[in-house]
Design a protein that fits this description.
Length: 290
């Protein structure tokens, strides 16, 4: 289960949110996994021209990556969103994404200037390169401190919305959700694991291992469990239905097989369950208004 904590899955809807947010501010918004892997980037934007020069022409890429790693550790330890100025003189915002009260990744917003900032001095630059670097720096978005505070508040709201709406989930949880959805849609049909695996773009072995390792179950048991729940719900709504009728409604073509499965997984024959259900329903007080 530990690997699932490190593997964040983002819904396609997240991309639209990132695109809109990034476009409004002309900044880059990026999702990272806990290990620092880039998962999604608003507008699929590359680094700004200024950073491209710093990292590639001035050979400062390693310094940039080291600071990114250091700041991710900082926000992970503190649990608080931060804004900071990098060694190249640009500001970035960094926030941790939590799922199920566990850190699952990060969101970074950058790069921009604050009003009144000056570009750091880079000794040894010739006039042409310094002019190129200065022009790239001045072309970056520039915010006041007050606006930065508002932006970081909106960024946190965006992250909270994404997690509350379950647009970001642990990848293992996402696979389980997809399995559950498939079984729910086809619960009364004679579905097979290879059919579902092909539909989900997975191998049969990977799904079997996932269910066995993380949920101690199998595709067959999940399908049977879904059918039994459907049978129980059918009896709740139709208390006078026979065992055969209920078995058929739940997708079982053989009522005797239904009885064997029900007895094994519920600890009692379906007839006994049905009798207890009807008794409980009959004992409920009736509403005089009915």
């Amino acid at each position: 289960m530990q690997n699932m904590t490190l593997d964040l899955f983002l819904s396609d809807e997240v991309q639209g949110l990132l695109d809109d947010f990034a476009a409004l501010l002309d900044v880059r918004v990026t999702f990272f996994s806990l290990s620092g892997e880039c998962l999604r980037r608003g507008k699929e934007m590359r680094n700004c021209d200024y950073c491209h020069i710093i990292q590639n022409e001035l050979a400062n890429r390693d310094q940039c990556l080291a600071m990114d790693c250091s700041k991710r550790n900082e926000v992970l330890q503190s649990g608080k969103d931060i804004s900071y100025r990098c060694h190249a003189g640009l500001y970035e915002c960094l926030a941790v994404v939590r799922l199920k009260d566990r850190p699952a990744g990060f969101v970074m917003m950058g790069q921009f200037r604050l009003e009144g900032d000056q570009m750091p001095d880079f000794p040894g630059l010739d006039a042409a390169r310094k002019r190129k670097l200065t022009n790239a720096y001045n072309a970056l978005p520039c915010f006041s401190k007050e606006k930065l505070q508002a932006i970081t508040g909106v960024l946190r709201t965006l992250i909270d919305y994404i997690t509350v709406r379950e647009l970001a989930v642990l990848r293992g949880d996402f696979l389980r959700q997809e399995i559950n959805k498939y079984i729910e849609r086809h619960v009364t049909e004679d579905i097979r694991l290879p059919d579902m695996a092909r539909k989900l773009g997975r191998s049969v072995s990977s799904i079997s291992q996932f269910l066995r390792k993380n949920h101690h179950t199998s595709f067959k048991n999940l399908h049977l469990e879904a059918r039994l729940k459907l049978a129980e719900q059918y009896w709740q709504n139709n208390p006078d239905a026979t065992v055969a009728e209920t078995a058929f409604a739940a997708g079982f073509r053989d009522q005797f097989y239904f009885s064997r499965v029900f007895s094994r997984m519920r600890g009692m024959p379906p007839g006994k369950y049905h009798a207890r259900l009807k008794e409980a329903i009959n004992k409920k007080p009736h509403d005089p208004a009915e």
